Amino acid sequence: MSADQSIALVTGGNRGIGLAIAKSLKSQGHNVIVTYRSGSAPVGFNAVQMDVTSMESVEKGFESIEEQWGTPEIIVANAGITKDTLVMRMSEEDFEDVINANLTGAFRVAKRAVKGLLKIKRGRLIFIGSVVGGVGSAGQVNYSASKAGLVGMARSFARELGSRGVTANVVAPGFVETDMTATLDEKRRNEIAGSVPLGRFCSAEEIADVVAFIASPQASYITGAIIPVDGGLGMGH
User: Fold this and answer.
1) Which parts of the sequence belong to the Ketoreductase domain (predicted)?
2) At what angle do helices 92-99 and 141-161 cross, to 10 degrees?
3) 184, part of any domain
4) 139 lies in a domain?
5) Is residue 195 part of a domain?
6) What CATH code is carried by the domain that includes residue 131?
7) Helix, strand or coil for residue 230?
8) Helices 141-161, 105-120: inter-axial angle, 10-degree rounding
């Protein structure tokens, strides 16, 4: 896989981790297209509006991408949501909404992308998971379940599509410096950092650089893997 003309698609790529991934892939020479559900497209990137909770929206988004730029070879399923609350307060709607966006949404995108990958007989499916998919997290039954589900799904894609030159992997971040974690008070930040062997939060750029590696020719023999970027928090899981 050459970066010269390859097209990379990053869902939810207009902010946070998704935008960092888009920037890293662009720096490696890929033609990066980002999707966004709401807000505005980031400056400097081709973009399409896409809601991963709707197969119709996913289909329209891919049709637009293929008409304007061609077949995406690198698919980064990053779009997702959280609806955190303790399990006794978690409604079925809270659970189903997170599964629909994070797990079924990733499936919708990957399934549609595979149509093009099978034609060109190469590609990368990269799912953005989480350390909590392996270790769990109080107040995140829905989110943890959605991220754990990505592992089984990615490994099934890996087995099904490996003979066609398509790899499928999960990049699993730990605690990340985001707008949300920036609002935590110093005591809570220190508690969280203290639970991480490396003693600090991860930057979005550190995650993005790992994604860029998995998308590169150097990672052509890696598939069905969980690549942790968690400072050692989830080791052994």
Assistant:
1) 6-195
2) 30
3) no
4) yes
5) no
6) 3.40.50.720
7) coil
8) 20
Q: How far apart are CA 219 and CA 1, in angstroms?
A: 10
Report how far apart, in Å, the C-alpha atoms of 147 and of each of 2, 41, 53, 79, 227 are. 30, 26, 16, 12, 13
| Helix (H) or strand (E) segment spanning residue 119 | helix 105-120
- What range does the domain containing 17 cover? 7-177+203-229
- Element holding 210 (H helix, E strand): helix 204-214
Query: Is 102 inside a domain boundary?
Result: yes
Q: 3-class DSSP state for residue 65? A: helix
Say how many domains are in the chain.
1
Lookup: tokens for 140: 């995140």
Please tell me whether the overall predicted TM-score, pTM, comes out greater than 0.90 for this model: yes
Give the span between the Cα atoms of 203 and 175, in whole angstroms. 9
Alpha carbon 28 to its chain centroid, in Å, reads 18
Single out the residue of 9, 59, 6 nearest to residue 30, CA to CA: 6
Total residue count of the chain as it appears in this document: 237
Specify which residues 31 forms β-bridges with.
7
- How many other CB atoms are found less than 10 A from the CB of residue 199? 11
Per-residue pLDDT in tens (0 to 9) along the chain, 237 residues: 444 579 999 999 999 999 999 999 999 999 999 999 988 888 999 999 999 999 999 999 999 999 999 999 999 999 999 999 999 999 999 999 999 999 999 999 999 999 999 999 999 999 999 999 999 999 999 999 999 999 999 999 999 999 999 999 999 999 998 776 777 788 888 888 899 999 999 999 999 999 999 999 999 999 999 999 999 999 977
Q: Which residues are annotated as catalytic?
A: 143
